[in-house]
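Researcher: Predict the fold of Fasciclin domain-containing protein.
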Amino acid sequence: MNLKLINICLLFITLASCRKAEFQPEVEGVQVPAEDLTITLNQVLEASPYVLFKAAWKRSNMNSIIEKRGSNAPITLLVPSDAAFTADGMTLEVINNTSPALLDSLLLYHTLSAAVNPKDLSERGENTIGISLLENTHIQVKGYDNQYQTDPYFYRQYINVSGNELLINGKKSGGSAVTLAKNGTFWPIDHVLKKPEKTMLQALQDDGRFGMYIEIMTKTDMLWDEAMMGAVDRDRFPKGLSIDDNYLIFKSIFAPTDEAFHQAGFKTVDDLMALNNRNPLPYFDWDTYEQVGTGYATDTLLTMHRWGRIFKERDGWGPGDDNPDSFYSNDLNNKLLSGYALTTSGYSGTIPIMYVPFDFGKNEAGQVTVKVKSSAHSAATIVEGDINTLMGPIHAVNRLMPPKDFKF
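Model: Structure tokens for Fasciclin domain-containing protein follow.
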């Protein structure tokens, strides 16, 4: 073992043995990483106690993949512990019998295309989007430099820190010591990250708790098509929740469970249709060649579950552009989102901007609560947050979130 490798090993031993007081951070609660800009991530990995990650890395093609990116392209390695790999069924025997290509996929998902410093995360407040090196070649996203073009889809990790705890996609992911190396960041984590396989629509359909939500929105889409006979279109429920022409939009939604509808007095979808029937239903007047009516009562009832975006004001050029709303549960707080603009003022600059319409809080159990501003209706509780999909998180809520002044 050469002198540099011995020094790296001593670095890990020192980190493990130091008292908490010896690493008192400059900003309260923020972990101070070990820093040695003379060593590489490969050297840090080699000296680390993470046997199974090391074995997977050596069997994979990761060294050549990283070399092709060049020495001036730093990365962050999110390194599951041996216990995490074992709990996931990835024993040494399994790793040694897994193809290098499959290991590449696993490790690329755990590798971010930039060096991430815990202190930088703490100073931002909101999640930082870590773009992994794993690409899905079947999906495109809106172009970063040109919104009229598309970019390849790379899986994302939304990362932040809370005290000494790393958060990934809203979930606690461990508080092990971080090492800053010459070509990036070595960040141990306590579980194996799972890449999302489903769109939001697929996740909602497969979950089993959101049947009434899916059925009423699908039914009103069908009613609209029958009433308008193709003369007037509307944004259908799957838009943004599924992949359209291989194109995907990052977002989050507050999905009401069937129990949320039951709690509000709607036991069946027929009960929801009765709510729609209390007002004249929209139709197309072929004599005047005009649309009569803008939508259904259930559209208004459920618009806030998608950040209030079902109804958008327009000018002659159309509605304003949407700003990102892919927020994981640790982002759902008033400090971050109060006053956040969900839309732009459009091409003409005259369309009223939509701002986040919610007050966020936490209940005694620490669950995030969501209340529509100025609404007399009780706050909804996120009973399961951060259900990860290809688009972003689904937050399951236990109450409906009607706009203010909406009665049912």
